[in-house]
Design brief:
five-stranded parallel beta sheet, Polyamine Oxidase, Chain A, domain 2, alpha/beta, 21 strands, FAD/NAD(P)-binding domain, 19% strand, 3 domains, 16 helices, binds flavin-adenine dinucleotide, single chain, seven-stranded mixed beta sheet, protoporphyrinogen ix oxidase, domain 3
């Protein structure tokens, strides 16, 4: 039997970052991971032609100073890569044509992405009364009420499929886009609230409080470097290839049996996806298990496609393109991966990463790889003017990809919190609460590690996430 301070089940970036701070803080901790490596959905490899294939996130945003701290702790600062200047453009498909997303007020009024009526509707936004009461609204209801239908269809709908692979009609604005919800509550208007935050950010920068690192980033060999380095650093605390099937609570401690050995700790962190967490706690807390199971995780296919540069007509001068649902295409969007970051594709080729399925049409991602490959290539050919077959095609299908913070998510969170109160020492961690982005997961992992270290009279005092206000790190 091995006595520990903390047992973690699940080595995605949520569990792995919690492990990092717990171990750094002096806790005696082990992490069990079902796969052969930590990282969860986050993983990168080079294919047989040398293209860098990402299985999950292609980049992350410095939306919390904790990401920077983690990167420095792991000595990964010199492995960072940042977007190329041309990647500042983002395209949205409208009426079958790719149109650049306007980046400032002047460009917005000149842009052909939105009609004159949509622009006039946007100008009315500051004069629309804020919602009163606590009724939960979907993102679609909120955006249509404040910004109008066209902004929903051609701005928010594609943006939401880029972040959640989700649908604004189902997602709760309070839980999935808390910033929009808060801006209305704080300033009565998104435009007024946005300007106020921008001014606050400017003042903070003038006071020298701006973060050293901001914007998007990845690593030379892809996002997988981050969990990979955590595994290298804390290898002796990590047991891979262990699928934990049950947890037991005996005499106030949590017990996990792995490879014939019994591990015992007062604290157990379940950092798996919600359905697996539900299975593990079902015997102890049926209501929370049912709540966790009710979280929607639509299937998503990620296709990394390599073409000869000379065969692609479009200049690929941008981050990528997003496809609004009203355009009725079968891909959600495509990242121009070899434009975004350096050294993603061999000389003379371009790498595109296309997404298919999600909450819009999950069944599309669950077809045969031949059908998916055919449709992805047909969509890219039609939209980007490609006149040759791909040189390589790598497909990763996630049957359950990204949790959806749908209407009713607040009640799910309450059930989870109640279960944590009733089962002392049991903690649920993962991207189904606290945000889905890599930065959000790291922040949740750190917040939990801090709580556990404080409670156990940590040998090392760990600072909280209070060095700077988070809004400073939000992308404008
Ligand atoms: C295709 C895709 C693209 C994305 N793109 C971006 C992006 O560009 N930028 C961004 O910021 N975010 C992106 N995200 C979101 C972000 O990557 C995820 O929200 C985040 O990585 C999830 O981390 P996690 O640790 O919470 O969960 P997971 O990565 O799902 O990790 C859970 C881990 O638990 C393990 N596990 C499960 N059951 C058991 C068990 N019984 N025993 C032991 N181990 C178990 C699993 O093997 C897994 O490793 C993307 C997500 C996906 C799927």
């Amino acid at each position: 039997m091995r006595n520990l301070d903390v047992i973690i089940i699940g080595g995605g970036i949520s569990g792995a970052s919690a492990l990092h701070w717990l171990a750094k803080g002096g806790a005696d901790v082990v992490l069990f991971e079902r796969g052969e490596a930590v990282g969860g959905v986050m993983g990168s490899h080079r294919n047989e032609l040398g293209a860098l294939v990402e299985s999950g996130p292609n980049s992350a945003q410095f939306n919390t100073p904790l990401l920077s701290e983690l990167i420095d702790d792991l000595d990964l600062g010199d492995r960072l890569v940042h977007p190329a200047a041309e990647a500042a453009n983002r395209y949205i498909l409208r009426d079958g044509r790719l149109m650049p997303v306007p980046t400032g007020p002047k460009a917005f009024f000149r842009s052909r992405l939105f009609s004159g009526a949509a622009k006039r509707r946007l100008l009315r936004e500051p004069f629309i009364r804020a919602a009163v009461g606590e009724a939960e609204e979907s993102i679609a209801q909120f955006v249509e009420r404040r910004l109008g239908r066209e902004m929903l269809d051609y701005a928010i709908n594609p943006f939401i499929s880029g972040v959640y692979a989700g649908r604004p009609e189902r997602l709760s604005v309070r839980h999935a886009m808390p910033m929009l919800h808060d801006l209305e509550r704080e300033a009565g208007s998104l435009l007024r609230g946005g300007l106020k935050r921008m001014r606050a950010g400017r003042k903070a920068r003038a006071r020298g409080e701006a973060p050293e690192r901001k914007g998007l980033f990845s690593f030379i060999e892809g996002m997988g470097e981050l969990p990979g380095r955590i595994q290298e650093r804390w290898g002796e605390c990590i047991h891979t290839g262990v699928d934990v099937e049950r947890i037991d609570r005996i005499g106030g401690s949590w017990h996990v049996v792995a490879r014939g050995e019994r591990f015992v700790a007062p604290n157990l962190v379940i950092a798996t996806d919600a359905a697996t967490a539900a299975g593990l706690i079902a015997e102890h807390e049926t209501a929370a298990a049912a709540a966790l199971r009710s979280i929607e995780y639509p299937a998503l296919a990620v296709a990394s496609v390599l073409y000869d540069r000379s065969m692609v007509t479009h200049p690929l001068d941008g981050f990528g393109m997003l496809v609004p649902e009203v355009e009725r295409r079968c891909i959600l969007g495509t990242i121009f991966s070899s434009t975004l970051f350096p050294n993603r594709a061999p000389e003379g080729t371009v790498l595109l990463t296309a997404f298919m399925g999600g909450a819009r049409e999950p069944a599309l991602a669950l077809r045969s790889s031949e059908e998916i490959a055919y449709d992805v290539h047909a969509e890219l050919r039609r939209t980007l003017g490609i006149c040759a077959r791909p040189k390589s095609f790598d497909l990763r299908v996630w049957n359950r990809a990204i949790p959806q913070y749908n209407l009713g998510h607040g009640a799910i969170i309450e059930a989870i919190e109640l279960a944590e109160e009733r089962l002392p020492g049991m903690h649920l961690l993962g991207n189904y609460r606290g945000g889905v982005s890599v930065g959000d997961c790291v922040k949740s992992g750190r917040a939990l590690a801090d709580r556990l270290l404080r409670r156990s009279g940590a040998r090392v005092a760990v600072a909280t996430d209070a060095q700077a206000p988070d809004d400073l790190y939000e992308e404008s």
